[in-house]
Amino acid sequence: MNACTRIDPKWKPKFILIVTTKEHDTRVFSRVNGRIENPTPGTMLVLRAGKELLATPQKALKGTVQPVKITLIKNDSGVSFDGVMKFVHALSYTHQLTCSPTGLVEPIYQVC
């Protein structure tokens, strides 16, 4: 944040800082007609209101889907938590080689 004021003391951009990980043992299931199945792609479960959620943007091709754990660290922008959830979900569809959503948010998928 201090780097921005070095460029221009009047410049005070608003930041949203999000941490994502798949390094956890949490699994998500849905019950359909008495059967346990993977959740529908695009399912988002709020763990801590306004702070943490599990997202399953992708369809499990084999086995059990592993959700992405998303933690909102900082939100200076005033965007609602629902807006952040929709933005994160939309980023899962931005892969250049497939129209299907990726398991990680695309910018992070590219880094890995």
Automatic annotation (TrEMBL):
GO terms for molecular function: nucleic acid binding. Coiled coil: none annotated. It comes from the Eukaryota. Residues 2-109 form the Piwi domain. Transmembrane segments: none annotated. This is Piwi domain-containing protein.
